[in-house]
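Q: Sequence in, structure out?
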Amino acid sequence: MSGVSMAQKALLRSSRWRGWEFVLWGLAFASPLLMPQHAPAISEIAIVALFAVSLDLVLGYAGIVSLGHAAFFGLGAYAAALFAKHVHPDPALGLLMGTLPALLLGFVASFTIHRGTDLTRVMVTLGTSLILLEMANKLDWLTGGADGLQGVVMAPVLGRFEFDLAGRTAAYYALVVLFIGFLLVRRVMASPFGQSMKAIRDNRLRATAIGIPVNARLTAIYTLGAALAGTAGALLAQTTAFASLDVFEFHRSADVLLMLVIGGVGWLYGGVLGAIVFKSLHVVVSGITPQYWTFWLGLFLVVLVVVGRERLVRPWQAIVARPAGSAGGGA
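A: Exactly. Output:
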């Protein structure tokens, strides 16, 4: 009983909010007011942060290597855009209709990750994304093909807040959805289910030996990650009123993987931090050298690997007091 009690106390400690978290989210929601000229960029950061959190569930907590996570992102984007154009323009309904197809695809695709090596999973996930990309290109009568799906008009959020040209409504809308998604993931990973996922990630054979239903847990976490990626894709289509083949491209999966490398794998705030740093570098560096910004990003990643993330962020970690035992060490 004492062991169970100690485990419960550990879970409660890990789920308890810290002061710096309130400050972080307060600044996030204040950013569209403090920097109104950057509202579109804030919206984009919130969207890719949710996308990064969804991949972190799959990679950081389940240990499943994926190079085709854009499949779920793109499916959510097209589903939401098509729903808004042909059925109903309500953003909340569109968000749901963008999430559900990605959830279903994630559930079906999850059965392919139970077997094989990491290389096999990489190729299967990448292949799924490429198949959907080619389907979207060929079904141009439905998706618009290479020209993209145009003419998407969104209704006001909650019937009151219209999407303005300045992007402030889109920024707040994306931040709210990010926060809700983050709360959901935080609650799941602070539960016994989340602790069992860490055991599976560390040693799948040992987890099976102590009675954890490994395949069922992997299916659940992969499906949840796919659903959140679909939500992020739906957000992008709704806030830009456009969906194109770009949402399925390989660079989407590669970029979000780089965000986790920057922010830290297996730490929920790693996806958020990585999205902020990656997009900020993109905006700042491309403004200075538009043709060579990827060189400076690559140089930053090399320094991050050589020096080590722990040395670079040690002062920050001392402030936030990240719980012991969390993943996200050096890249």
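The chain has one domain: 10-320.
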